[in-house]
Structures
1.
Amino acid sequence: MTTPVCLVIGAGAGIGGTVGQRFAKEGYHSVLCRRSDQEGLDRLVGSIHEAGGAATGFLLNAVEENAIEDRVAAVEGEIGPIEVAVYNLGAQIGDRPLADTSYKAFELGWRMATFGLFRLASSLFPRMEERGHGSLLVTSATAAVRGNAGQHSHAAAMGGRRMLCQSLNAQFGPKGIHVAHILVDGAVDAPDTLGKMLGPEQFQALRETRGMEHDGLMLPERIADTYLHLANQHRSTWTHEIDLRSFTDRPWWNH
Amino acid sequence: MTTPVCLVIGAGAGIGGTVGQRFAKEGYHSVLCRRSDQEGLDRLVGSIHEAGGAATGFLLNAVEENAIEDRVAAVEGEIGPIEVAVYNLGAQIGDRPLADTSYKAFELGWRMATFGLFRLASSLFPRMEERGHGSLLVTSATAAVRGNAGQHSHAAAMGGRRMLCQSLNAQFGPKGIHVAHILVDGAVDAPDTLGKMLGPEQFQALRETRGMEHDGLMLPERIADTYLHLANQHRSTWTHEIDLRSFTDRPWWNH
Amino acid sequence: MTTPVCLVIGAGAGIGGTVGQRFAKEGYHSVLCRRSDQEGLDRLVGSIHEAGGAATGFLLNAVEENAIEDRVAAVEGEIGPIEVAVYNLGAQIGDRPLADTSYKAFELGWRMATFGLFRLASSLFPRMEERGHGSLLVTSATAAVRGNAGQHSHAAAMGGRRMLCQSLNAQFGPKGIHVAHILVDGAVDAPDTLGKMLGPEQFQALRETRGMEHDGLMLPERIADTYLHLANQHRSTWTHEIDLRSFTDRPWWNH
Amino acid sequence: MTTPVCLVIGAGAGIGGTVGQRFAKEGYHSVLCRRSDQEGLDRLVGSIHEAGGAATGFLLNAVEENAIEDRVAAVEGEIGPIEVAVYNLGAQIGDRPLADTSYKAFELGWRMATFGLFRLASSLFPRMEERGHGSLLVTSATAAVRGNAGQHSHAAAMGGRRMLCQSLNAQFGPKGIHVAHILVDGAVDAPDTLGKMLGPEQFQALRETRGMEHDGLMLPERIADTYLHLANQHRSTWTHEIDLRSFTDRPWWNH
């Protein structure tokens, strides 16, 4: 039997890479794509191999013409059928007033957060539809449900992403393709930055105490639990919209 | 060590009873409460015992004064700490135009769907807060997010339920109590009715074919997967609002 | 021709009374109901008479059995057909943690914010339906769309109110009855309290400067502009949900 | 004193042109921009002149580089300060499954519905901010709040538009700039097409009977009432989100 593939677009050291590791542990061949940092990518792929899992990594600039489409085709042809796709590209450019939000930045936000997802679905869904099953897990942000000062680019891009997810689901849900819009409504623990500075033990200690007790950083490993659960949901009982936040974080709708 | 208790208010043969069975399988002592049908309740408790799990059943009329409060106190005193509570009382009374919706029916809807939840939280949350952890899983309905003709009572009651969940979460999330509002947006497979008519084999066959292929009835066993996942979410990564529907069902926001 | 009646439930010196004055100015007979303060009520009715308008005032405890129903019947029998009803009863009881929110307070919130509206619609809509037209303008609050710590009672009651409005509209819109849910998302200028302390001139000066420039208190006269506009909307172009806030206020969905 | 300008981007014979006529009647100089049909544009401008109003028309392809920016600058320099801007460009391309939604169509939808609005705000808001006042009325569609099968391009573009409106409002509301997102949730009466076929009298008769009694077409003149009301709202009482539909139309949230 062919190993099912989990394709991650945006596989850095946060949610994307961790989800890739988790699916590999469950028997998927994880195909990890990120824009830069070959070394980090190799380390991620290596960590999966060491754990006995299957993984392949590619540098991929998602906004480049045909980059997503060609990768989908190559993975399907050379590695196996993509059973789960994780679209994990963010488009947060920090708080920028309108005057500091260039046309180029606004367009790039759309290319990464909205158009890239459309391109992924356009190239992948015909294959999934033919097979009669498949999942698309879309990492999303609070900006998908509310605008904010300084979020002109991010909110427009993420709002488009959410509505696109609803449209994709409307057409493809009945064909057996599960589209889940996952609203990550809080700060995610980032081992690549803070973790490297402190070293693994001290970093873990910090996360267990300050992180979990006080700051409530969202742990990517635990986020991956939910991604896996969503991919495993029976088709009689699918989730399309879900939110995630730390117990210490105020949901976006609260003051 | 004390066995953690999963208290289910509204433990019929659909979501409530099945969730109770599932948590018992995971090592919880399931305390199952339903308004009537002692025989059905005994059968449910018996099925858990046969599977090697712990369960106790009580008939409970949730709208009766002190019924919920006394049950919470008795369970905590005699069985163990309630780690997970599942509030699964519906208030659907069918499509009724305004003229056919009596004041009594409207008030009863509120007593079951909104006030009962408030009473459960009022009696249970101080205990959970002292312990620093606990989960409240609230089954909800599409009517919580949109009204409809004939749904005057149901929608008002469920809309109140959802806003109450958000308020409870705002106060108690940071105390370690996880409140999840689970929007069940579709028809649930009901073994107690259809299942009894057909017998187990024929019913299962129906569910595997017509149900899953065409009608897309939501299977309570699979719904229970998600309830369990929510209860197990790490507190750095909690879901507060989630929807569930069959792949063949149109989400409520679509035409 | 009969003078059309504008019935205001909750006609204090803020939105309710001001809306009553405004509709009287437009030729309606304003029937103003409030729970207490006969003197304030007389002053309000008197101000309308002085301006050449028609108005009648009644003390009315909306949570009393039959109080709303009897008033509707009496007004329709003795004054004229209710063309516009304004439901302006709030249920804000201040920030109260769960432990300080009594069952009685929670129920009272529902009786005022949700059940009272249901009773008004039950007694009024059959008459409007027979006439083929009518408007129900419902003052609502931010709590109708998001819960918050300390808002257990208010949010549950207002969430129910909003879903009830959607249900009423679904049944009665096609019958020519316009239901508008007006989300007042900010602090309203309160002449009855602050105004009395300062005297009219100083109070107006305050509102023109500090109020409008800085604090952005919502002016009831301007809120009444929008209520009137909604009542006048042509039935080919009705608004069902609208929000209102000061330019200096952050909408509820923002941080 | 300078005549205030009302700039309409998307001034066809439906909402845009009618809103332009209405604002001209109220004393604004209406600047009407549409992509094509010089004759229709001249007729619209002529009708305003005949009614004693001020208007100027321009053909403008909003997706062309600098088209919006240059028009804003020219109008401000040659006609007067833009007090009200109406962004009325749609991006509906009909129901198209994913396979029939080209990358070009998807991008064009974004350029018209999302990016064009961003460009308008970028060029206009610094001027309005300096003056301390101004309004941006944004025509929007149901697709801004829910996706649907065949609406991949439209929903993504309109979802982005709504979130952009919220972001713009968050930054510019406190500066005195009113951004209103107007969700037109129904079919609009289209005099340019149906009206031309039937002639004015027969068309009006149709609208009075079949249209208003049965089909409930939304009348642009009445929609313009609400646009005008929004532009006139006092800044202590602004609406940011409003919906509009015919009394016979089901709101989007209903079945």
2.
Amino acid sequence: MSAVTFLTPITEEIKLVEERMRAQAEAAHPDLRAALEHLLKSGGKRIRPTLGLLVGSLFGAPLEKLVTLGAAVELLHTATLVHDDLIDGALLRRGTPTLNARWAPPATVLTGDFLFARAAKLAAETDHLPLMNLFGETLSVIVNGELTQMFTSRGLINRDNYYKRIYAKTASLFEMTARAAVMVSPAGEEASEAMRDFGYQLGMAFQIVDDVLDFTGDQTSVGKPLGSDLHNGLVTLPAIYYAEAHPTDPHILSLPNGGWANNENMVELINQIRASGFARQAMQEASARIDRALTQLEKFEPCAERDALENLAKYFVDRKV
Amino acid sequence: MSAVTFLTPITEEIKLVEERMRAQAEAAHPDLRAALEHLLKSGGKRIRPTLGLLVGSLFGAPLEKLVTLGAAVELLHTATLVHDDLIDGALLRRGTPTLNARWAPPATVLTGDFLFARAAKLAAETDHLPLMNLFGETLSVIVNGELTQMFTSRGLINRDNYYKRIYAKTASLFEMTARAAVMVSPAGEEASEAMRDFGYQLGMAFQIVDDVLDFTGDQTSVGKPLGSDLHNGLVTLPAIYYAEAHPTDPHILSLPNGGWANNENMVELINQIRASGFARQAMQEASARIDRALTQLEKFEPCAERDALENLAKYFVDRKV
């Protein structure tokens, strides 16, 4: 499944989202404009605006509102990435230098703030108050999640904590996007709830697949060293499954006591997890979530948009990067 | 003029704003709650919510909306202070340790983000779309102003640049608060425009007085070393007036070329400015702005709220800290 399959029906609409995002920097200081240009050029597959455009089109939402929503969601996402990369000291994202690799931290903090401001402004331009409320709430969930992760001891092996973390980090914004796209359409509560769950399941699956690819992915296309999460004390689903099956493994036992900082031991543990079936098991969990998302879709009449959403959902587990 | 004069009519309402702000941390991580508690406890005179409450009451806006607006504005203001203090490496604000004096930069970045999120959520809860739009726009102006200041060479002596900077930094939020308070009232465009200018003039005066107090203030109550702006290469109104009158003063000539970094020369220049009448001249400019604000007030019938707003406006130039 290539990215093209789900993008084809909305290639033109995604261009409008890009234009809308770029227009946000118009009145800004030239250096800030340059920074935003850099961020937007290096910026991913626009999977969140795609989700919003497809869900909204399925329910007859006006294109203008979906473009505004898509730009708001993607700028919000970009803002959180800018601050995340600063906090993590990351120098590369998707193979391109991060903002903080080129700019001093103060300018990076403020650029993130500017993106938050423009995202909030765009959200307001959808002219839909419950959507604005949802937007503010989702941003709180994301930031609170990041802070909670920061205050949680590294090396923690806890599945419940894991699900909460990936919800805050990733699924909350997918959930919001799908729900908001229905909000600006004529469809009612039933569609909204179905699409909320659709977005939620997609988001959870997306992050689980990310975490699996950290173990199994092609290192060059993932763009990070293998097992980088574990090296940073972040115990994700494949490692949690492995820990549940091997509770007395000395490397596992060492994790909550700072053992994740021992590079040699972690390389061993990462190889053990790779050799085990637990990465595949985690992938199956992601697939099960996508299946559940698809049953939500089936509640609605078949059409081109539904097909595209089905392809989008399947891409979430088929992707290699 | 004591702060009490203008606060008396709304002592109870300000308590509601405080409660509303504190409630924003309820679902947050305990450490984040503690940080917010610290920020709210050490937090100033609530002059922005006071402005919103008084203006809104003058035009019969519902209290609930004014409390929500006040909490949104004050949290937005607090968020910008948190990121500012981080960027400046400030360890004290209003005599109490800043967040970044106690927390690591990553937690400080995220706490600011959380405050932005809650401010946006509160703004959405006013149930008023043009207000939401104005809120997003104002946040963009503030952040763009900070970035512009960051990219502007220090030591720049330019009055136009100064006015633009203090508008973005301070006046834009006062302007927005007064305008938004009318928006949620039954009053029309005329009241909105009058109060927009009222808030604008108050905000410009507020910052000019701040900048004058940096030269003339009682060092212990201002809480910063005398002339700290100039020591940081920030040329404010008293120094600009002085420079316009003494264009060949060697210390003035040195400023755009980094002369502001020479501590001894700056102490001399600060003393020259203090001995000159230019701090008083800047204060007169602030007073003229307050007079203009008062003429806006006179367009409306006398009442307790109008009296309180008059007292508030006068306090802006009479304050010593």
3.
Amino acid sequence: MLLGPNRYGKAEIRVVRITRDADVHHIKDCDVGVALSGDMAAVHLTGDNAAVLPTDSQKNTVFAFARKHGIAEIEEFALLLARHFVDSLPSVHRARVAVEEYLWDRIPAGDGADGAGAGRTGADGTRASGTGHSFVRSGRETRTCVVHYDGPSERATVVSGLTGLTVLNSTGSEFHGFAEDEYTTLRPTRDRVLATEVRASWRHRAEHDGFGASYARARGALLAAFAGTHSLSLQQTLYAMGCRVLEECGELCEIRLSLPNRHHFTVDLEPFGLDNANEVFFAADRPYGLIEGAVLADDAPDAGFAWE
Amino acid sequence: MLLGPNRYGKAEIRVVRITRDADVHHIKDCDVGVALSGDMAAVHLTGDNAAVLPTDSQKNTVFAFARKHGIAEIEEFALLLARHFVDSLPSVHRARVAVEEYLWDRIPAGDGADGAGAGRTGADGTRASGTGHSFVRSGRETRTCVVHYDGPSERATVVSGLTGLTVLNSTGSEFHGFAEDEYTTLRPTRDRVLATEVRASWRHRAEHDGFGASYARARGALLAAFAGTHSLSLQQTLYAMGCRVLEECGELCEIRLSLPNRHHFTVDLEPFGLDNANEVFFAADRPYGLIEGAVLADDAPDAGFAWE
Amino acid sequence: MLLGPNRYGKAEIRVVRITRDADVHHIKDCDVGVALSGDMAAVHLTGDNAAVLPTDSQKNTVFAFARKHGIAEIEEFALLLARHFVDSLPSVHRARVAVEEYLWDRIPAGDGADGAGAGRTGADGTRASGTGHSFVRSGRETRTCVVHYDGPSERATVVSGLTGLTVLNSTGSEFHGFAEDEYTTLRPTRDRVLATEVRASWRHRAEHDGFGASYARARGALLAAFAGTHSLSLQQTLYAMGCRVLEECGELCEIRLSLPNRHHFTVDLEPFGLDNANEVFFAADRPYGLIEGAVLADDAPDAGFAWE
Amino acid sequence: MLLGPNRYGKAEIRVVRITRDADVHHIKDCDVGVALSGDMAAVHLTGDNAAVLPTDSQKNTVFAFARKHGIAEIEEFALLLARHFVDSLPSVHRARVAVEEYLWDRIPAGDGADGAGAGRTGADGTRASGTGHSFVRSGRETRTCVVHYDGPSERATVVSGLTGLTVLNSTGSEFHGFAEDEYTTLRPTRDRVLATEVRASWRHRAEHDGFGASYARARGALLAAFAGTHSLSLQQTLYAMGCRVLEECGELCEIRLSLPNRHHFTVDLEPFGLDNANEVFFAADRPYGLIEGAVLADDAPDAGFAWE
């Protein structure tokens, strides 16, 4: 028997960092996962733990680093951690650090009664304007990153992204001219609802100091391309979204998208003497279409282990 | 053996209603549940279905009503449905209709790149300003209502509410002076994080024509009271939130709140030579405190079956 | 403003109790929730915590009681806790303790390769026969109880139950002769799949010392009645299940059932030149029928606060 | 911009197949996902769907194949489907078909009151003995497979597995001798609870006609190795489990395991004057350790695209 690829670490470390700027507080709310690999044959074969830093110590490190270094952008925090584990432990050759960030708005100081969450945060999680220490969870998407640092090659890779960005076009979507076989009963349509929950990850060409602005640009490009594309298929929309992100974000070289096609079926109301010109839909859960694809810049460097 | 209280119906009917206002579309995205009760002894005792309108017909009714009447406010839609079932079926004496509404923002027509979801919707689900047919799911809370209509008494009750409104104060919360017994090890604190995920339901005095504005006022009052209360206990905050809602919403007479105390524990960093003046927290999942309570207006009428 | 009904406590305390019987271990794996009520006006109105035992102390009590008293049956454990809180704290007039129990089988000592989980546990969570300290989670259902103890009346109530018991009859179910209205398109059927996920709670007449055997009898009666009833409607099946439990369990006086009708639709395969005599089904998630009802013994005593 | 790797298909097709063997019915309850790839540049770049078989047709195919061919073992069903899509559509070069199977026991014909689910099924989903048409969902694990078929190379790969197999050793687990750094506070232990929820996938050397028996052997080997290994670390247990599966299943050549370390912390009861010799534990949710690793047979052939 041979031991194959392996890694270990602590998952789902829920760390919340409050920064007190006089009376104005800032919040970063994260879920961190660490996975280390290297000289780990002995622990698998004999249970010798000499090369194994406990996952409990990894957890402690995340909390201590949040105190010492703060969490400016999740990519920076992940890079600090990944380098630390590789550089301080000879048995660890590579570290993978993944972070999810949950976003918060400020509750307006004066009056929350507009119901509109004024004072909404940008991609940095909190906003400089406004006052106070009261927050409300915002948005439905989660900002993500996955960072690798490899000791022998001294190479780091950074992938950022998001999950849970749910979008819908109520028109401007068609589907026809498709292949048909003996099991095809679907009828072509010139007008349908197109809805999806975007899961996207994009690879940075290199480390840089604008991860927050980069996230805002990429998110905005995804929304703009989804809204602005007259769609003949969800694949076309996926490709348009990927291209738009790379066009607007020169710091990125590749993007991967996973788009479930959340079907909205037009309900047949004829039995009740009613027409239904794309006004009433049944939103189905399962099954759903699933469209996955990648777009790369023409000069994208080799990804290495970035996507592992 | 005796047959006790019973009801039946269709649950989780996912209906999406698009309204086309020239080039500007509006969306209402709902989950509807129907429960009917009445002369149902025979079906239980012998399987005689003569009194039973199929749950499939109830589902059809929801879709047909969405086409015929639109969905202006979920409370109005629920009232229409509840009255319909009771009035059209002699065997049905009472109907309960519950609706959850999922909220959407418009994707800005010009440029989505600000990352800030400009054009956010108010409590009516969509905003008159802005253009287009592209939407992004907004907020984390779900707007809810539960409506009852009783045939014999011709009485309707309306309870509105929300779930999933997650809020946090990073200071301004204390907990001390509590009872202690032989199992008490908790130490009093003068400064802690207070976080909760609000589940609230409020009872209307009567039907009215301002359910949308009422929701916005109540939501705003919850946020304002949470943010504005210097808290000595989560119970105090709960009561302040309930009072604020009733004070600002004369159309309401009762509110019930369920507030999980989402503990944020200050991490002990002393072993690593670091202080931690409420800057780094571990956000725990379980167990959690759970605080439940109601506030009533002095002149609240009898609730009847409103909370069933 | 008036403070209405309220309670507070610690929810989702995950306690695992291992009992070492020489080389044979026994496991009880529970989730405990405590809710206390009484003289709690001050904490709501002014934040005065003098009457408030911290939820942290409640959690400690659960762990300490698991050590001191063990967890024989979850109902007994809940009763011990409920009485303790009421009897030791003057401000607490009533305690509600809810327990969920997760069930485990033993992994057979000799050989796990039969794939069949021999050595399965009965209702007591573990089995006396067999050896060892290795377990595998079994079944999909969760055993539950909710206990109340009221100080002023010195009355205790015990409700036991289960959730997540998923059952299916592949024939022996009909649905026809139902009421029809203008929105009815469903066609009657003489043979359909009937599937549901049973949520049931049953009320004991009094405390007794056979909660484990009672649970096994009630669970068995539910299964036997579901399997043994030729069904003309899910309501009929519900009533049969309730009656069977009460008939076989004289210690019980009331049962409440909630049965989602998990629709299995016969797929139309005619377009592909295939018949489908109830052989291939699409298992739908939403919407679903929801049938709720109670059955009581003729001489059932008043429930009091048992169902709160 | 370049289009990178892509695929599309229908996910989460919930198909239930009933086979009527005179009065004895058999059930296969599956969730099927299809993903196709090939000449798909046009649909991405221009929205030309000529190469795209609708995901709706894929869904229809799954239901029609369930009728025509039955579902003997999920691997066989997946292979039939994968070959069909590649062989019948020139634009499709490769198909990936993933199946999850949910397991059912028979409800005993005579009497369900033993609470023990006699008549439990083996790996084939149902048991030949016993009678009737009544079933109860069994076990907590889900049986899985992922099959690929590649047209140009005419090569198929088969990976089987399971998720959700939750196991626990209440003793026989140690953890000491580990690496320590400045963030290490964990103390070594000679006796701890070891609990995990096994996610495992194993690769077959080739297609064969014993997938059902193979699954039972692999599942049994996982349980036997978990129970039979005195563990010095979860990595050691992982490797032992992997080796045991490959030793007992000559038809397999590789296994990949993902084992979350579900921490059970011994509760400190000293403040209450109680000892706690590994009797009372707090079962934590998050964070958790996560141990991932692969074991390969010495002569394992190249995996190709099996794990994609």
